[in-house]
Amino acid sequence: MKKKPFVSLEQVQEMTKKYPTPFHLYDEKGIRENVRKLKKAFSWNKGYREYFAVKATPNPYLMQILKEEGVGADCSSYTELLLSDKIGLGGDNIMFSSNVTPAKDFELASKLGAIINFDDITHIDFYENIAPFAKTMSCRYNPGGDFTLHNQIMDTPKDAKYGLTKLQMAEAFIKLKEKGVEHFGIHSFLASNTVTDDYYPQLAKILFQLAVELKKETGVHVAFINLSGGVGIPYKPDQRGNDILAIGEGVRKVFDEILVPAGMGDVSIYTELGRFVMGPYGCLVTKAIHEKHIYKEYIGVDACAANLMRPAMYGSYHHITVLGKEDKPCDHIYDVTGGLCENNDKFAIDRCLPKIDRGDYLVIHDTGAHGFSMGYNYNGKLRSAELLLKEDGSTKLIRRAETPEDYFATLDFSEFENNNVK
Ligand SMILES: *Cc1c(COP(=O)(O)O)cnc(C)c1O
């Protein structure tokens, strides 16, 4: 399928009059429509709830849009909790799925009334010295071994640092029950960016069977099962996207097969999607500022890996559209690079694109999740702005670009006063 940007050259030209490139741009209409479809896919489950994984796109304006659609927040750190509190999320609107959790993070999560999802059995004793146990608490499960789908290894939970073993799950539930906990959650995250409609149903099967066993063994009430994140998006044009309605139907099928006969038809299904919810509805807009002809052909742009780390870090593919040249033949082969002093700072390698001229605007697709948020300041590069393309077609600045003052804000220069050359 041809990948089309959600923004046109004319729109970008208008935006850059006020906001220079590079910037991340988000599509309100796309976000809302997608979330509504996700909720529809699980509408068969009375207690269904999506907790957006804040780490994917920690911007309060975007979280507010999701909040208006009935979505909560999945946090894993102190500042993500603060951010959720700032937009008025609290209580069971926050899922706290952390690991290696500092005491002050548990303290704040408890104060905000968040649902706490323990990553380890030892955290129960650790937590007891910090905050009171709530009526509802959750534990993260790690089944160990390899996680396979259709005889293909998707990931290796046995090598993952997360979660409790099966034996520990039962032990933890008994322990928490003794502490007065009444309602229990089970959570697991076994594979990332899955592009198949079978991941969630397969994970659900594992967790539903576990829930039935745990209930038998410990007698606790399982209130919810949290399928966490991991539903992916098609970064490449030849990939077929996930059909979220089919995924919801697949989970319903195993729900009816396993939980309903066990008298557990009241269990709520939760999700903590980040990438699926936001990924396709954000892009990085950047300008070609240099071209270089040596052993290869290079296009240098004004964004760099500090604005989008995935290609450098994982070798990830992100599709690129040259705005205004959507219908031109892709008869040039380029490396599209940023300006970090790192040779992996390449948004694309040997990519077929139309002829690019200096001043052309490039859209780097699918940066709405794990894009801006993974940014960093290496080489003194500054974080870009974030803009929202609203449903009415107007543009709103939802985070300004960093300035050198921001970069220096944590330094005390008083010992170096009067040293400036000019
Ligand atoms: C990262 C993360 C998610 C979201 O993952 P996606 O791949 O973006 O869907 C959800 N839950 C937890 C605990 C995570 O760490």
TrEMBL record:
UniProt KW keywords: Decarboxylase, Lyase, Pyridoxal phosphate
N6-(pyridoxal phosphate)lysine modified-residue sites: K55
Cofactors: pyridoxal 5'-phosphate
Any GO molecular function: diaminopimelate decarboxylase activity
Domain named Orn/DAP/Arg decarboxylase 2 C-terminal: residues: 280-368
Record has Lyase as a keyword: yes
Domain Orn/DAP/Arg decarboxylase 2 N-terminal: 31-278
InterPro entries named in the record: Ala_racemase/Decarboxylase_C (IPR009006), DAP_deCOOHase_LysA (IPR002986), De-COase2_C (IPR022643), De-COase2_N (IPR022644), Orn/DAP/Arg_de-COase (IPR000183), PLP-binding_barrel (IPR029066)
Record: active site: C341
A GO BP annotation: lysine biosynthetic process via diaminopimelate
Entry superkingdom: Bacteria
Protein's UniProt keywords contain Lyase: yes
Sequence similarity: Belongs to the Orn/Lys/Arg decarboxylase class-II family.
Name of the protein in its database record: Diaminopimelate decarboxylase
Organism of derivation: Lachnotalea glycerini
